[in-house]
Amino acid sequence: MVLTTARPPDASIPRTRPAARRRTAWRENISGYVFLSPWLLGFVTIVAGPILVSLYLSFTRYSVLRSPKWTGLDNYRRMLTQDPTFWSALEVTLTYLVLSVPVVQVFALFLASMLNRGVRGSTVYRAIFYLPSLIGGSVAIAILWRYLFEGDGLLNNALGAIGISTQQSWIGSPDTALGTLIVLNVWQFGASMIIYLAGLRQVPAELYESAAIDGAGAFRRFRSITLPLLSPVIFFNVLMNVVTAFQAFNTAYIVSNGTGGPADSTLFYTLYLYQRGFVDFDMGYASALGWGLLVLVAASAAGLFALSRRLVFYGDQR
Question: pLDDT per residue over 92-107, tens digit each?
Fold first, then answer.
């Protein structure tokens, strides 16, 4: 047995005292806060500050020209029980969401599946299909869309060329105006398509090969392999498209000249909020509408997350 004795600490090695370590840590923290200060300043002045101010204004009567007057829950009570236009705008927005979001997903997933098969020139096709997502929401495209669906627009001219004569203004009719905006939103499927294509590339080819050997057809392989493994991507795309649909504004504003017409058929929630705040200068009520929109988006997101527990499959689940 070998007996060892503990060596005394070497006096020549300096030991850091707790106070010195705290000073060093404080200096490092200060450096971090200095580098973060531009972002913190922007967040407080541009994001957090206006959010808190709008929350306060939602409980006041404020018309910009006069000082805010506290009214409690009057704006919210007025919104829910005394304003039929609010419910009309909400109905238009929900109709737009329910019709456009599923169509975008189906269209984007279909084209992503086609491109995933190794089509020649797929890189060029991806760029072409993605281009509408870059320019689709711009003011120029909204103006072009308006002239496309006017009574003497390109659509009616194309229909006339194949023997279908009509002078209907698709933008000017309450029955079809919202449909033209839904078509415009579906046209911007490129971003969802690219995400679906990336998800499809992660599905192991061995699973398809094994299913084919077992006699599964193309539809069965898609339903039993592709959809379950792609469900997290589908959930992400649906969530992002739902939030975007609630925020739709530019196209309706340009196409209807800011009125939401004809007959309020394109009066989105955000457009109505804009009218009350920046046309009527009823900022208190507009702030209440803004917080109502926040509640709608949060409730929709919470509902989707609740559904995802049953419908979304993750690879690490057992």
Answer: 999 999 999 999 999 9
Return all residues near 308 (Cβ < 8 A) that are at least 6 apart: 235
Mind listing the domains of the chain with CATH numbers? 96-262 (1.10.3720.10)
Separation of alpha carbons 65 and 281, rounded Å:
9
Mean pLDDT for the chain? 85
pTM: 0.84
Instruction: Sort 299 into a burial class: Cβ within 10 Å, 0-12 / 13-18 / 19+.
Output: exposed
Distances 225 to 94, 248, 255 between C-alpha atoms, Å = 32, 34, 42
- Region of 177 (left: φ > 0; alpha: ψ -120 to 50; beta: rest) is alpha
